[in-house]
Amino acid sequence: MVPQPFIRGCVFKGTSSVPYPRADPADTRLPRDTWSTAQLPVGVRLELVGDAEAIDVSYTTATDDLGYRGDGAGRTFAIWRDGKQVDEDKAELGEGTVRLSLGDGEGLAIVYLPEGMKPTVVSVDAVGGSIEPAPPQPRWIAYGDSVAEGWVASAPALAWPAIAGREQGLDVVNMGYAGAARGELASAEQIAALDADVISISHGTNCWTRTPHSTAMMRAAVASFLDVVRQGHPETPIVVVSPVVRPDAEDTPNRLGATLADLRRAMAEVAAERDVLLVRGRELIGPHRLADGIHPDDEGHRILAEAIGAEVAAAVHQ
């Protein structure tokens, strides 16, 4: 069976070289670092229902160099059902097929891809029964930086947006851009043009270091980003999540004199002036939940998923 009806988490039209882009490939205004990470199909997955015993997924992969994230970027196809992983099989470089058991559960089955290997799903076929694409769920656009992208969870299914989407019954579209996501207006305009039932915005740490912002710059950038998104979504709930704790940046001024605490405060002040829900990221996890001093470990991602996911789901159903 052709895979397109089963694919979730991809809202932009693909190209021959980037089948599942997480930003608009035609938008030449995107910073190079944003487009680089947007080519990885983070959060793209298959969702299906049916009584089949198993499925065969045929695929191709483009690389086995997973970079900084290592195996956490995904080297397997993993299937989740009823809140647990029921099967997993290793992906090979190039062409291949994996057979994944659907287990004894019922209802929605989610297949997470080896996203770091840049896979393309060629076909999805039922074994010992039938399958069909899962019914649509409310769409959640999750904009953010490397924490939203899933660094450094040990598997794609364990990134906080993936966990929250699975547990809250949401079709999460991961627009988390590692090393990027500084609230560029190109991204805001793309979000404004997408259909969405709820939107989360969770960037900030790269405004401290990668492209240093002063407090005034941060306030203006967040205000402009939110205002542009709101132009396209006058009624859509928006959840703003300020940066999680980062010990090396909390009280250390960047080259423009702003600490991460200053930038977080500016983000909160702008959010308070608008019709959005603010989640204070500094309070969600402690430094001991950072695997490398910047990014959450698996338990940190679980905590973020529980806290942020509950707010996002509540906003959808209010």
Indicate the proportion of strand residues.
15-25%
- Identify the CATH class of the largest domain: Alpha Beta
CATH architecture group name of the largest domain: 3-Layer(aba) Sandwich
Report the total helices: 8
Terminal CA distance reads 38 Å
Domains (count): 2
CATH superfamily of the largest domain: SGNH hydrolase
- How many strands, what sense, and barrel or not for the largest sheet? 6 strands, antiparallel
Tell the overall outline.
Answer: globular
The structure class reads alpha/beta
Unreliable segments of 5+ consecutive residues: none
CATH topology of the largest domain: Rossmann fold
Note down, in words, how this protein is organized.
With 318 residues, the protein is an alpha/beta fold. Helix content is 26%, strand content 24%. It has two domains: 4-133, Galactose-binding domain-like (Jelly Rolls, Sandwich); 139-317, 3-Layer(aba) Sandwich (Rossmann fold). Strands 1, 2, 4, 5, 7 and 9 form a six-stranded antiparallel sheet that branches.
